[in-house]
Amino acid sequence: MYLFNTEIVFKQRLSQEIYRLRLKATKDFCQAATPGKFVMLGTDDGLLDPLLRRPFGICRWGENWFEVIIKVVGKGSCQVSGLVKGDSVAVHGPLGNGYPNDKLENEQRPLILVAGGMGIASIASYLFSALDSNQSLAGTFLLYGAASYSELIMLNELTAASALGLKMQTITDDGSCGRQGLVTQLLTNELQNYPQSRVFACGPEPMLKSVQKVLQRTECDGFLSLENRMACGFGVCLGCVQTVLSKDSNAGVEMAKVCTQGPVFSAQQVVF
User: Which entry of 178, 192, 195, 226 is 20 to 30 Å from 84 by CA?
Assistant: First the structure.
């Protein structure tokens, strides 16, 4: 876990309110990044307004840089997304626990990746990691849903993963790209075809609840990346706690810190 100020080296507008930032980082930081981890970012202006940094998933990384995807939803994200190449950013990370990394080198089960809206930033970290290491994506499916075509981002880059075997489907609320409907409809269909799949999912809580219900019906193995609001990012403030089943079967439920014990949890463990 590193705490440092760094520089923006690239900025790209992906949609009306969504931006990609690439930031400099040390080799040690990049080696510590894994799919599903996140950083806390803030402006380095000395004004302390807002006081707290904001969490963003690490979408992609190289030897000395990493990228985040930012959607403008409030003051913090507005400030960070408003920065330009050369501006300084305060960084804390990589933080949290990401997706299981034992996939499928020792297994033959299909892997279904389910992304809803900005959940694609977390899910894409797995795909970009595979792309950048030339890892096979045979038997891997991406199900990507959003409100409309304008909110489906990085489609060209994600489609490029088809060369490694990825199969992708899109679905939108208004039918402007792919099928019309909810991404969990696609998940239900794929699990009928591949009932022994493992599922990784990230998106808004209503979507994750639906994914969990689908998994409960099929008894498939799944992991959910939660998007709980965070303040500190390292387990002190208790602002992001989530009810989960205790690992002690006799203890019922407990409150887990999403920032340190997650953001990725077993789907069977989360209590919504």
Answer: 226
3-state secondary structure of 210: helix
Q: CB of 120 within 8 A of CB of 154?
A: yes
Encode burial over 115-133: b for 16+ CB neighbours within 10 A, e otherwise: bbbbbbbbbbbbbbbbbee
pLDDT band at 249 (very low <50, low <70, confident <90, very high): low
> What is the three-class DSSP state of 171?
strand
Within 10 A of 106 (CB to CB), how many other CB atoms are there?
6
Read off the pLDDT of residues 40-78 as tens digits, 9 standing for 90 and up: 999 876 555 566 788 999 999 999 999 999 999 988 889
> 2-95: what fold?
Elongation Factor Tu (Ef-tu); domain 3 (2.40.30)
The CATH classification number of 111-227 equals 3.40.50.80
Tokens of 104: 């499928």
Alpha carbon distance 16, 118 (integer Å)? 14
The sign of the torsion formed by the CA atoms of 11, 167, 30, 119 equals positive
Residue type, 230: M
Which residues make Cβ contacts (< 8 Å) with residue 117, sequence separation at least 6? 145, 146, 147, 151, 203, 204, 207
Cβ(224)–Cβ(184) below 8 Å: no
For the chain, what are the domain ranges?
A: 2-95, 111-227
Which residues on adjacent β-strands are paired with residue 55?
Answer: 40
DSSP 92: E
